[in-house]
Amino acid sequence: PPGTDLYNKSITYHYWSAIYNAIIMLASNELGPRTPAEYLFVSVMMIVGALIMANIFGEMAVLAQVMTKKQVKFQEQIDTANTAMKNLVIGPEVQQEVRNYFLFTQVTLDEQQELEKFLELLSPSLKLEVTIHIFAKLMKKKLFSNQHSKVDQT
């Protein structure tokens, strides 16, 4: 019978076979219902599968669009900086430092904006709890301990 010598096939055959079976499962092909109950079950599962796939593809499209907007804006900033540095004949080491700075500030800015949006969604009492949790370690540190002796010396 076909398919019994699977272990004697190449790794490429295994991958293509897995892809084929995944597509068959997702696309609901080659289903052969025989009884009315099987027809009903297969029909419902095909509709559910189509809805799930549509949801997944929709979410992927939205994520790709959002990421593309952020990336385009950031790339424009980098391109402007690169052009300015090239026109000013700035050395490659300094150029790399500037690019690293842009990358660091962009990540930090995104994190700050996400935090602000998150805090806007909270009630004042929850916002206070979250703020205390965020800054608890900093508040527990004695930042200026042992500094009085240095002040006295001056």
Automatic annotation (TrEMBL):
<dbReference type="GO" id="GO:0042391">
    <property type="term" value="P:regulation of membrane potential"/>
</dbReference>
<protein>
    <submittedName>
        <fullName>Uncharacterized protein</fullName>
    </submittedName>
</protein>
<keyword id="KW-0812">Transmembrane</keyword>
<keyword id="KW-1133">Transmembrane helix</keyword>
<dbReference type="GO" id="GO:0005249">
    <property type="term" value="F:voltage-gated potassium channel activity"/>
</dbReference>
<keyword id="KW-0472">Membrane</keyword>
<dbReference type="InterPro" id="IPR050818">
    <property type="entry name" value="KCNH_animal-type"/>
</dbReference>
<dbReference type="GO" id="GO:0005886">
    <property type="term" value="C:plasma membrane"/>
</dbReference>
<dbReference type="InterPro" id="IPR018490">
    <property type="entry name" value="cNMP-bd_dom_sf"/>
</dbReference>
<feature type="transmembrane region" description="Helical">
    <location>
        <begin position="39"/>
        <end position="64"/>
    </location>
</feature>
